[in-house]
Each structure stands twice: as C-alpha cells, then as structure tokens.
User: Fold this.
Amino acid sequence: MSNLNTQIFNANLEKQGTSVLNSKYFMELLNYLEVVNSNEEKELNYAKLSGKMSEILDDTHNENAILNAKNIEELLVIFKNFNLSHENLKLDCATQLQNLFPNLAKNNFLVG
Assistant:
C-alpha cells in the first residue's frame, strides 16, 4: 500500500472510531450499570473495577451523571468527559451489547 493510501486508510479508521467493545473502561461502566439495574440483591463490587473507574464513581457528581444517563449515547457523552480514552468510540455492536447486558437491554438503555 502506498504512503498516501495508508494515510487515507488510517484517516478513515479514525473517522469510524473504535468499537465500545474494545474500550475497557466503557465496558466496566456498562457492567456497573448492569449490576445497578439488576433485580437481584447484589452488592456492587468496586474491587472488580479498575482504579480509574473506582475513582470516577467515588465522586458523587460523576456517579449521579452516570446513573441518570437516559441511554447509551448519553452515557458515551458523559464518558468522553472523563478523558479516559483518546480514541473515538462508536456504537456498532448493539446485538452483542444486548447479549452482554440483558438488564440494560430490557430497560431500552442500549437503544440510542
């Protein structure tokens, strides 16, 4: 591939972004919301969250913003404000997310 073609290819990848499935922190956030929205009496286990996500959720303002997100698109906007990822994330995997997070799917959270 020529240098120009490589640059065009890379520019197109940047426009497309990275799937949210490949974002460790965003997936942790969805998992957190899945547990919060479950009907089971589970304790939220912060030990399963990374240090950065635990730190973000320890801030009441951040946690309220996350918990009050109406859908995944709002959550993505909130997530971008945390500056955890320099990648452009895209929502391209609705079926996979619905399978991974059935409680969020049931509440229509995964519909943008």
In short: The CA atoms of residues 35 and 44 lie 7 Å apart. The radius of gyration is 16 Å. The longest strand covers residues 18-19.
